[in-house]
What we know:
The structure is a homodimer. Chain A is built from nine helices and nine strands. The first copy, chain A, is an alpha/beta fold. Chain A folds into two domains: 70 residues, Winged helix-like DNA-binding domain superfamily/Winged helix DNA-binding domain (Arc Repressor Mutant, subunit A, Orthogonal Bundle), CATH 1.10.10.10; 112 residues, NAD(P)-binding Rossmann-like Domain (Rossmann fold, 3-Layer(aba) Sandwich). In chain A, a hairpin with a 2-residue loop joins strand 5 and strand 6. The longest helix of chain A is centred in the N-terminal third of the chain and has 19 residues. The first copy, chain A, starts with 7 loop residues before the first helix and ends with a helix.
Amino acid sequence: MRYHKIPDETVRRLPLYLRGLQSLLEKGQNSISSKGLADFLGVNPWQIRKDFSYFGDFGTRGVGYKVEHLVKQIRKILKLGAVHKAALIGVGNLGLALLAYQGFKVYGFEVVAAFDVDSKKIGKKINNITIENVSNIKTLKKRKISLGIIAAPREAAQETAETLVKAGVKGILNFSPCYITVPGKIKVITIDIAMDLARLPYYMPSC
Amino acid sequence: MRYHKIPDETVRRLPLYLRGLQSLLEKGQNSISSKGLADFLGVNPWQIRKDFSYFGDFGTRGVGYKVEHLVKQIRKILKLGAVHKAALIGVGNLGLALLAYQGFKVYGFEVVAAFDVDSKKIGKKINNITIENVSNIKTLKKRKISLGIIAAPREAAQETAETLVKAGVKGILNFSPCYITVPGKIKVITIDIAMDLARLPYYMPSC
């Protein structure tokens, strides 16, 4: 099921809500008030209510939210039920960190392949994944790998993205600090940590 | 100068605008229409106008924006003029990737110190930075390092944050996939890549 006209900003916040709710569940808390949830997540109560309003009414006035129900609903909205296979391109320091990263599984992602151009790396096995030559990227469609994670150097990012699109991926997580241009139906999420770091000084007292 | 009542979401978008505008400047483009800028950045024109409206009027009707002026204004708003010294805690794969990352400089950040608990790493020199024992974190204030970058394992993140706060940092960039609790005046930005990856399936066709 795909919900229409949901603002990107809401879709951006849903995973944050989900992470918070999941940690409440782990603590054994099964219901929470609108205000309690807002405080826990560090956002405004009206923001949460507005975001949830796009999907119908999740809470009950005076009772609040059922945490487990909410987790299920958000996972459904985000289509996190399925397992998505992902391929990593670029096995430098960042790539190695991503291969070791445990956070993917929580959201139904599985990194099942890794590619590099460096002949010294090709053939090596890391976390049960054998690093392949980038020329093998063309096999992704056959292997039902629909997500690409780009951890290649900046200058190789655009070409890598185009290769991934040709290989049939539907989504790209881009760690190179640059714009990537792909056909509109392919969703690209660029993670540029400098973008986050650049927000910090604004909140800091003069130094 | 600190502007008040600016929504976090606007502050979140300003670095994205800045990055786009800087890349326009690099291409030699000195003015751009509101719509042109929106298309280039992949956001709605009304969003840009609304975000800029918090700071006064940047554009001229019928003429558009002067790119260089806009870059200067946004850098000023984000207080990016100064050089901020940052310390990295945790020199694993992710930490190594961060030490090599060139994107910090663009926003006036300089990673000048790195810390780890592993005696095999302490004393090693990476990109001109000698890895120090975490016990040295207490020297940050004296060294005028006001930002901490946590790339430590999840279970060490909270303790690391507390140590950083005691050492006088004003902002923390947290790469551990967990919540960190610190006094309200310290700004924490957590980068959990799974949060971004979790948004991808929503935009993808059923697979």
